[in-house]
Every structure is written in structure tokens, then in C-alpha cells.
């Protein structure tokens, strides 16, 4: 009988969990949809790279949506069981609240293991793969976006014109480049032929001009300089066309745990960077552990009988999640500015909700009503006065 009840409760949690996880992840992905559609419609990027980009974005979203989906799913499941008096029937059969918590604990542990796998392995690799893919898309866009006999202004500070481009698009002929990146100087470059050269390792794209001349006029129009060249390279800034790419380095969100710890111990690194890396190290454990604390908190909150089970579950879940992430964002901001220690800033939300969950669980286990305790407190305060 015990196993049947455990499977029943676990199923009640699993179904809304999957639905809510899908909805929340889709909502977060919608924030990127406009940029993704711009890549397809305006930049001419094919469907396959776009699909890969969406897949690479999913782990970073799921690391946050899994704990939230678990919290709301438990609230909805326990609320439904409580509203239909099934919790009362289960207790009447001889099972305590601690035994009812067993399938909830299994669900919390499973999501914790899955989330810690995502945060330690999938997120850093997918974030770095996203950066590499964006570079490939940017390189592709650089060649796709350039049309013959059309002035192209996709590159910051440069105006590019090509008189002729072969069908294979491997090079350009009759190239004119207006370079305004240097303040106070206007450079005009004429070249017979030009190539786009990408470097995947350094994540740079260069425009190599051949057999041309560089013409420079001073801002007061009094000085003129001409330089003839056989080969001349221009670094293209792709930030205005698709995405700003960081060269030859990984950000903290793109590093594995080993890389983060190695970087922290690296000599000569400044305090701000150490704090940023340390926050990321602690987040790889604190965010997955929120699954355990959310499960502990959701059970006593969910077993309060209420008619509007789903709406109440969503409302309570959103309130809890909002408070949790407000504490987390505020704590991390204080850590980044050096006003708070890393352990307190990152772990304070988890510890706060852990103590709150234990307290509410104890009250529910002893079947002590919070409203009843409040009335007793007010009554005693009245007597003392």
C-alpha cells in the first residue's frame, strides 16, 4: 500500500512538473525569439544553425526553470490532494506527514541531481558552444550581407561597396571602403580584390584587400596622404550585425568547475574577477540545492485546503520564487561590490528558505495552525498588558 501511495503522489507531482517546466522554458526562450527571427529573416541564416542555437540556449534556461517548476508542481499536487481530502484519507490509513514527504523528497533529489548535472557540465559547454556558433553565424552573415553594387553599413565605423561579386561569393572585385573608426581622420580605401578571412580560434573576421591604395584626408581638409599596398587587412567589428564576441577567452559562465578553480588560483587576477568567479562556483551548488529546499517548503504550504488549487499554487509559487530570486540578486550584487562575503551573499537565500521550510514542516507535522498560534500569541500579549 505504501508503494502505491508513493507512486500516486509522485505521479501527481511529475505531470504538472513537466508541463510547467515546458511552459517556463518556452517563456524564457520567447525573450530571444525576436533576435532569432531577425537572424532568419533579415540575416539569411538557415534553419539548422538556428535550431542548434535554440538547443544550446536551453540548459542555461533549465537551470533556473527546473527548481521553479518543482516548487509550483508540488504546491499544485499537494493542494489538489488536500482539497479533495485525500491527504486526510492518507493520514487516516496510518501514514504520517513524514512518510507523505518521501515521494516529494525523491522528486526533489531527482531534480537536484539533474540540475547539478546541467550546471556543472551542460551550461558551461553549451554557453561556449553558443559563442562559437554565433561567431560562425556572424562570419556567414558577413559574406551573405554583402551584395554587389550596394553600400553595406553592417560593420561599425565602416562603409563597404563591392562592384562585382562572383556567384560563389569567395571574393569581391572593385572594392571601396570608407573607414571612419579613427576620430579626426577619414580613410578611403580602394582595392581591386578583397577576401573575408575568419579565424575560429581568435573569433575574428578580417577583410583582406589586395592591390589597392589608402587615401587619408585630415579633418581640416588641408592634408592629404596616399599609401599604395599589395595587401591590407581590416578587422571587422561584428557587434552591430549579430553579437559582440569576446576574443580568446571564456567568461565565468562558460567555464567548468575545474576551470573556475584554476582561474581563481591564477596569480595576478584582480579582486573583482575573483569575486565574479567565486560567485559562479557557489551558484553551481546553491541553485541545484534550491530544489531540496523548495520541496521541503512546498509540502506544508501545499496541504492547506483551498478550492482554487491551481491558481493558489501558481500564486504562492510565484511569490516564493520572487522572494528567493530577489534575495539572490541582491546578495550577489553586494558580493560583486565587495560589501558582503561570498558565502553569505550567495547562500543566504537557501539558508533562509531552508529554515522556513523546516519550521513550516514541523508545524504541519504537529498539526499546529499558524493562525491558531497567532491567536494564542495575541491572547497572551493582551493578558500581559
How does this structure look, described?
- With 385 residues, this protein is an alpha+beta fold.
- Helices cover 62% and strands 15% of the residues.
- The chain folds into 2 domains: 2-139 and 252-378, no CATH class; 157-236.
- The protein contains 9 helices and 5 strands.
- It has a 5-stranded antiparallel β-sheet with strand order 1-2-3-4-5.
Output the helix-strand order: HHHHEEEEEHHHHH
Number of helical elements: 9
The chain-level mean pLDDT equals 81
**What is the total domain count?**
2
Helices, strands, pairings?
Layout: H1 2-41, H2 47-83, H3 86-92, H4 97-144, E1 158-164, E2 172-179, E3 185-199, E4 204-218, E5 224-236, H5 257-264, H6 271-302, H7 309-336, H8 342-365, H9 370-384
Antiparallel strand pairs: 1-2, 2-3, 3-4, 4-5
Brief summary of the model shown:
Helices cover 62% and strands 15% of the residues. By secondary structure, it is of the alpha+beta class. It has a five-stranded antiparallel β-sheet.
Name some characteristics of this structure.
alpha+beta, 15% strand
Amino acid at each position: 500500500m505504501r508503494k502505491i501511495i508513493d507512486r500516486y503522489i509522485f505521479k501527481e507531482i511529475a505531470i504538472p512538473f513537466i508541463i510547467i517546466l515546458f511552459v517556463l522554458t518556452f517563456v524564457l526562450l520567447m525573450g530571444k525569439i525576436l533576435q532569432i527571427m531577425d537572424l532568419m529573416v533579415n540575416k539569411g541564416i538557415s534553419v539548422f544553425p538556428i535550431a542548434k542555437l535554440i538547443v544550446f540556449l536551453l540548459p542555461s534556461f533549465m537551470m533556473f526553470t527546473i527548481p521553479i517548476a518543482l516548487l509550483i508542481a508540488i504546491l499544485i499536487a499537494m493542494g489538489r490532494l488536500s482539497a479533495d481530502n485525500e491527504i486526510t484519507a492518507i493520514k487516516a490509513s496510518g501514514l504520517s506527514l513524514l512518510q507523505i514527504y518521501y515521494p516529494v523528497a525523491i522528486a526533489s533529489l531527482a531534480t537536484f541531481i539533474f540540475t547539478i548535472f546541467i550546471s556543472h557540465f551542460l551550461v558551461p559547454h553549451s554557453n561556449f558552444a553558443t559563442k562559437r556558433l554565433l561567431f560562425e553565424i556572424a562570419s556567414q552573415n558577413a559574406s551573405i550581407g554583402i551584395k554587389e553594387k550596394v553600400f553595406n553599413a553592417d560593420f561599425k565605423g565602416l562603409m563597404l561597396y563591392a562592384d562585382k561579386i562572383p556567384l560563389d561569393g569567395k571574393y569581391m572585385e572593385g572594392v571601396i571602403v570608407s573607414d571612419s573608426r579613427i576620430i579626426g581622420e577619414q580613410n578611403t580605401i580602394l582595392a581591386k580584390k578583397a577576401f573575408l578571412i575568419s579565424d575560429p580560434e581568435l573569433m575574428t573576421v578580417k577583410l583582406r584587400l589586395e592591390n589597392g591604395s589608402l587615401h587619408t584626408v585630415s579633418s581640416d581638409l588641408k592634408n592629404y596622404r596616399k599609401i599604395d599596398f599589395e595587401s591590407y587587412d581590416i578587422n571587422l567589428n561584428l557587434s552591430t550585425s549579430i553579437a559582440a564576441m569576446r576574443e580568446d577567452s571564456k567568461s565565468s559562465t562558460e567555464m567548468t568547475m575545474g576551470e573556475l578553480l584554476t582561474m581563481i588560483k591564477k596569480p595576478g587576477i584582480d579582486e573583482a574577477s575573483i569575486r565574479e568567479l567565486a560567485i559562479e562556483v557557489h551558484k553551481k551548488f546553491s541553485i541545484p540545492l534550491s530544489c531540496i529546499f523548495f520541496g521541503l517548503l512546498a509540502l506544508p504550504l501545499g496541504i492547506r485546503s483551498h478550492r482554487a488549487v491551481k491558481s493558489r499554487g501558481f500564486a504562492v509559487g510565484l511569490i516564493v520564487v520572487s522572494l528567493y530570486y530577489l534575495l539572490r540578486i541582491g546578495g550577489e550584487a553586494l558580493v560583486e561590490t565587495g560589501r558582503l562575503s561570498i558565502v553569505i551573499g550567495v547562500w543566504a537565500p537557501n539558508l533562509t528558505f531552508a529554515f522556513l521550510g523546516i519550521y513550516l514542516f514541523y508545524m504541519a507535522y504537529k498539526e499546529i495552525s499558524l493562525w491558531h498560534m497567532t491567536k494564542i500569541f495575541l491572547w497572551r500579549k493582551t493578558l500581559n498588558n
